Amino acid sequence: MCFRLAEPGADEYETGEAKEPRDDGSWRVEFALQGTEDPSLYVPASLVWAGEAASIADADETLLTGLGRALRLFPDLAPALDSPVPDELLLDTAGAFRFLRQAAPMLAAAGFGVLLPHWAGKAKLGMKLTTRTEDPEASSGAAASSGFDLKAMIDFRWELAIGDGCVDEDELAELARLKTPLVRLRGQWVELDEEQLEAALDFLRHPRRGRMSAAEAIRAIVHAGDDALPLVDVDADGAFGDLLSGEADRRLVPMRTPDGFNGTLRPFQERGLAWLNFLNEIGLGGILADSMGLGKCIGKDEFVFVNGALIKAKDVWARHASGSEPDAEGEWSVPAEPLTVNALAKDGRVVPAPITRLYRQHIRERVRKISLDDGSEIIVTRRHRLLGPDDWTRDVRPGARVCVPARLVHEGAPLDPDLTVLLAWQIAEGHEDAYFSTVITQKDERVLQDLQVRLLRLAERSGIRLNAPKIFPNAGGRAAYLRWSGISYRRFLEEHGYRWGGNSAHKRIPDSVVSADDTTVRLFLRHYFAAESSVDLSRRLVEISSASVYVIRQLSTMLRRFGIWLRVSTSWKCATNGTGTKRPYRIGLIGGSSLRRFADLIGIADQGKQSRLETICSRPHNTDVEGRYREAICSAAHTRRPASRCGTSGSTRSTSTERRSFPGRPRWKPFAEWTASSPGRPWPITRPATRIGGRRGRSPRTRTSTKPGCGASVTG
Q: Residue 289: is it exposed, middle or buried by C-beta count within 10 angstroms (0-12/13-18/19+)?
């Protein structure tokens, strides 16, 4: 159940039914159903009542049940429930403000989806300080090199600011006259309560322009603002601006370990020592805390490779934390059982390492969403460092290259081969009802006969009681299918971590399979790709798709254990259930040297697909062409440019190439592919990934969000 607050004039969902003209001054709280695993699946209540949500089981009952639960937290909802088909609640400005400040946080905490306008919680009234140095040459260098002096005089100006703009006295007087908690100012809505207005009016009574020393400016910035009227921005130039913005820190040269010091400073400690020395030179005192708060946190919904399985960071805490030891900002815990992750050893190898402690905290700071060319994404705090070609850095910009493991290391336990094969086909082509019946559909009846034999063997070994599995042949244009039922079979799968009854978007591969030994993982992948993949001879690649974000990430992780790179993108396609509903599908592509490793180490348990795979691999190795559409190759030929420089949607390419000449190798080759496939060289432990961003037709992506989140880190 989801609630969306729409401001006056916002677009409405069209259902084809005639509606009476709406008052432009009314706010709306729209009701909808939203996917828990995939929030992009959003179905407005108007479509549910119009009968256009047939793909969602019991959509109307789910909607009414959710509204009934929400009524206890949001009493203003009652008038909307008088309608036999409630789809929205109309509010005045005061009601919208109550929803923002009171109802929305309670609904979100209770597990409901809440969608607010982009300006909610951001555009607030606050103070802005602008300073300008007297010496125009002072803006040309860092504070450390410009002779920064705390006694230097600077010009200052205090202003009231909302969002990116400033507010003058006349505008503030008009806001005070309106006495409304939500006002539209310069094209955007702003939350403004009585306490903020009083603080702003008091602020206007004090001098707001003049001159002061740099030391006085620092003290003013430290002590300025409160909850009612915070300091929201400082605009400073020159050495003073470098000091406040952190640019001076970036320009400092790390200091080596001092003579006579008994120990060796780490790189971040050398930078910290240089910062303390800089503060001492300009006459400021400072305290360096280098044991915590170094930016090691990732987002709570980010995936972590723990014990060979792919687990969200928040789930690592929920499943394995034992007790809690709070500190000033978060809480620590010791794992209740042994946990391992992949880590970098001192010699640069990727090795399994034990997790000694878990940590989580609620953060209220800017975070980064970093997207790589292979489709993987990660949300980290802005101080989180990534390994670049030369060293660890947090200065990550669009077009940069970062290192990721070429192979993941894990030694797991074997799983029953018959169970492994059954799970591969059941996840790919199976359907379970709400109780204990299972159907696997497949055109090739020989596959169903093999699965039938494996099922009977598994049932006999494990004591599973089944109704006789039966194969229904092709008839009336419908593909053949294998059907069986048994409550003990469902319980057996659930004991092995299988989630029963999920639709295609909510399916997951059990952790017992993902974290198994190489033989089990290889067997699962062979049969899963036999069920779901297609082998494209023209583009020289293997393609696989899934509506489940979890499944495609798990497949990528399992393939990485063999050094195989799966490049993932998103495409909107019609669902296969015949409703015509479009939903996002994740498309995974394997090409180039990764495709040959896939053929050598895994293969496909389907004779036709395996034959086409071998045909691709028998051709001369040319990663500049493999994984690209023919149009891109023709374009490269006409323009006389290497094909690896031609980006096409869905192509398996590296946007960064390096010119190298090796016998039997193409002249132009993506550096990431070259490092993993050059003859006579061992596979690298870490490989530079493709550049950040850089897709054709789009600008490189390094997104920044100001949304508060929850950080989680793993220390070893």
A: exposed
